[in-house]
Amino acid sequence: MKMTTLPTAFMLAAALTVVVAPSLAQSAGAVAKVNGKEIPQARADFVLKANAAQGQADSPELRNRVRDVLIRNELLSQEALKKGLDKTPEFTTQVELNRQEALVNAFIQDYVKNNPIADDAIKAEYDRAKGQAGDMEYKARHILVKEEAEAKAVIAQIKKGGSFEKIAAQKSQDPGSKDKGGDLDWAPGGRYVPAFSDALKKLKKGQITDTPVQTQFGWHVIRVDDERAMKFPPLEEVKPQIVQGLQRQSIEKMITDLRGKAKVE
Fold this sequence. Notes:
Layout: E1 30-34, E2 37-40, H1 41-53, H2 60-82, H3 89-114, H4 119-133, E3 136-145, H5 148-159, H6 164-171, E4 183-188, H7 194-202, E5 213-215, E6 218-229, H8 235-261
Antiparallel strand pairs: 1-2, 3-4, 3-6, 5-6
Helix pairs in contact: 1-2, 4-8
């Protein structure tokens, strides 16, 4: 109910050791030279930049690893060219797909750069999320079943002294909580669907619902174990997540608008 790795093309660890002859002098703009062909420094810089964007710190060890993988890939690429594998239909299709993906990524990055999220939009989204969360958060448990009659039987069983936790483990249809005795942990009421949230807020500590609560998931028997005042994080702490969410919304809207204007047959 409720990445620090090399980019894709560089995810495989080097499967063999490549020795580059020291007599092959490298130019200032090359990482290495393999069988007379230089590997441009720009290629290594691109990989390092991609790793930095994923939070991986630059280091001599990382640079050596990137260099080794680039050498490995250059060596294997040369062998593939010797075999004419670049002329196969599969290779041509893959190149086109990779080119298209790179273009999409470049366009998205350019769009995000030229359409920054305004501070007032960030504040408005923060206020909306804060208001939705409410002033309280609850430590609740629930038992989810498919039929109302079964939920009523569960309530009757609990009121006769049955263990909520054991019944949840036996009968609940929620795989995320049944093995924890129906425990949903601490969460603001606004995290749940409206019907569940409304029922939750009406319960006192230790109380269960007198009647089953229906949602799109099924029928719930709910118990509140504890409650406390909601401590919502300050704006600056959650601002990066808010910006990312609003950027995703903006990108999806842009794509929807483009699709609406496009002639798709």
